[in-house]
Amino acid sequence: MATDRNEAWREELRKAKSPKERTAQPRVQMNSLDPKYRARCREEVNQGLTAEQAVAEASRCMDCPNPTCMTGCPVSINIPGFIKNIERGEFLQAADVLKETSALPAVCGRVCPQEKQCESQCMYVKMKKEPVAIGYLERFAADYARENGTKKADSNIKKNGIKIAVVGSGPAGLSFAGDMIKKGYDVTVFEALHEIGGVLKYGIPEFRLPNRVVEAEIDNLRDLGVVFIKNCIVGKTITVDELKADGFKGIFVASGAGLPRFMGIEGENLTGIMSSNEYLTRVNLMDAGNPDTDTPVLKGKKVVVVGGGNTAMDSVRTALRMGAERAIIVYRRSEEEMPARIEEVHHAKEEGVEFMTLHNPIQYIGDENGRVTKVRLQKMELGEPDASGRRSPVEIPGAIEEVECDEVIVSIGVSPNPIVPNSVAGLSVSKKGTIEVNEGMQSSIPMLFAGGDIVRGGATVILAMGDGRRAAAAMDEYLKK
Amino acid sequence: MSKIVNKEFFSENVVKLEVEAPLIARSRKAGHFVIVRVDANGERIPLTIADSDIEKGTITLVIQKIGASSTKITNLNVGDELLDVVGPLGKATHIDKFGTVVCSGGGVGVAPLLPIIKAMKAAGNKVISVLAARTKDLVILEEQVREYSDEVVIMTDDGSYGKAGRVTDGIEEIAKREKIDLCVTIGPAIMMKFVSLLTKKYDIPTVASLNTIMVDGTGMCGACRITVGGKTKFVCVDGPEFDAHQVDFDEMLMRLGAYREQEQEAKAKLAK
User: Fold this and answer.
1) Most-buried pick from A277, B44, B181, B259 (CB within 10 A)?
2) Burial classification of residue A185, based on how many CB atoms lie within 10 Å of its CB (0-12 exposed, 13-18 middle, 19 or more buried)
3) How high is the ipTM of this complex?
C-alpha cells in the first residue's frame, strides 16, 4: 500500500531529512501569470508547480504520526500519504492515493478553501509558520497524472446489475457517480443543461478552473462506465416515478442551488443588473464573450459586484476580462469576514479590482431607458457577532455614497432549486426549500438520497463532494439489505 | 439532438417545425415551453410548445425570425437537427371549467395559445378566440383554432382580413355583448399590456403568458425576472402564466430591451 506509514521507503524518507531541515524551508510560491496580462484574457491564472518545486514543498511535510491536516479535509484524503509519494518522486502513486478518496482532485486542488480546511490544521500553523501547500501539491499530482498517466480502464469492477440514477452532474453528482460505479452499480447521470459538470462548467470561470480539467475528470467517469444524459430534467422531462418504473433502485438528487437571491431593493430590476449566475452562465457556459457565439453579454465599463464570496470574486474578475475599466466589489462587512478564498481576494486585488467593504446597496438609479447608471450605498460599521459568528454590519446613519456604474452583478447567494422537491410527493423539505436528509444523506423517501447545495443551500465544491461520497456509502448499505 | 421531421412556412418570417422529442411529447401540457439551442454557438432560447404527438414522439414549435439563433432555426430543413431541446419547462396552464373563455392571440402568440384553446374546450368551456395580426398573411393556425373554438374573431391592423382593428377592439366587442369569465392572452408584450388594461376595465380575470429573456430556463439565472403584484417573480419557474392585471408590463418591456444592441449586432453579422 502506497499509504502505509510504516512501509520501509517511508521510514527512510522520514530519516532522510531532519525536522529542522524541513521546517527551515520557506513555503513554495505558486507560479502565476502576470496580473496585467491575465486580467484581459481567459488563461488560467495559476500555472501549477514544477516537479522540483513540488518535491521540495513535499519535503517540508513532517509526515506526522497523527496527521491533523486530515481532520480538516471533508473527504479525509490521506494527505501525508500522497505528499510523501510526491517527495519520493512517485507522482502517479500520489495521484492514486488522491483518487482513493476524491473523485475530482484536479478540481479540489484548484478550488478548495484549503486555508480553512487541511492547511489550517497543519502542524506548521501551530509553530507559527506557513502551512505545507497541500492544495498546490494536490493539484500538482492530479495534473501530472492527467498529463502523463496511462489511462487504465478499471477492469476489476464486478458489476452487480443494480441501476441507480443521479440527478445533476455537478461536484456532488460526479463524486457519487464515481464511488457507485466502482462499487459495481450501473450509474446514469441526468443533467438539465447541455453540458456535463454543473457549477464547475457554468459557474467557475476558465481562468480559475479550465474546462479541459473538468472534461478529463468526466472522461474518467465515462471510461469507468458512467452514462451521462444531457438536456433531461428529472421532475420535468421524466419523473422520479418513471425512473422507478424503469428499474432504478436508488436515486441521488444533487440538483444544486437554483434560484439566485436578490436584495429586493428599489431599482433592482433595471437593465444592466443581473445575478452572478446569469452573468457567469453567459460567459462560461454560453461563451458569450466570444464574438462567434449568438449569446449576448453586457460588457460594462464600470461594473459593481455585490457580495464577498468566491462567486463575487469570479464575477468581478470576469468583468475585467470582458473589458471593464473599473470593477468594484461592494461588500457589507469588512474584508476579514469575506467568505471568499484568500487567494481569490489576493488575485482580484493584483488584477486591479477595487474593494468597497462596509458598503451596502440600498437603491439603484437608472436612465430614461431603464438602464442602471448609479448605485446608492449605505456605509456600514461592524457590530456584535451574529448567528454566523462573524461581526455583523450595522448602518452608519446618514452615511450614504453614490457610485456610477453601467453594470451590476448581484452575488449574494442562492436558494435551492425547487424542481425536484416540488415534483416528488411525500419528500420532506425544509422551510428554506432544502431536501431534509439523515447522516447518510437519505431523504424521507428511503430510495432517494440527496447532497450538495440542494441539501446545504449554498456551500463549496468539496462539501458537495463529501456529501456524494457519504451518500454513495449509505446507499450501497441500503441497497445491500 | 432533435431531428426536424416537418417544416411549414406560415409566412416569410414564421416557421412551424415538428421535431423529435419523445420524452417531452409525453410529459408536456398546455402552457409548457422548451429551451432550444440550435448549434454549438447558438443562444438558449425559450419557445412555447404549440402541439405534440405522443405516438410519433414529436413536438411542434412555431418560430419567428428575430435574432441570430431564431434565424438559424428557421433556416433549418427537414432532416436537420436542433442540437439541444430541453423541457417541458414552466408551470402548465390552469385548465378548469370557467364558463366563457376568450383566448386572444397576436402574431406567433397564436401558436402557444392553440393547446390552451384545445384544453379549455375539452374542459367544457365556451371558447371564443380572437386572433390578431398586422395583415392577412400573418394570421396563423386559423383552421386549427376554428376546430376547437365556438367562435373565432379575426382582427387585422390593415383590415385585409376579418375586421379592421386591434385585438383589444375584438375583445371589447365581445365584452359588451356577453359575460366573459376568463381571458387568456398571448402575444407581444405591448399587446398583452393593452389587453390587460382593457379587461381590467371590464373586470375580466385575465391570464397572460409571458415570453421574457431566459438563459437556463430552470430558475438558475433570473434573467427572466419581472414584477407581479409588487413582488419579483421568475417567468421560467413561477410562470410563464400570470394574472395579467398584476404584471408590471412597462418594466417587462424595458427588460426585454436589455440586449437590444447586441442582438442587432449579431443579426447584422449573420446577414453578411
Assistant:
1) A277
2) buried
3) 0.93
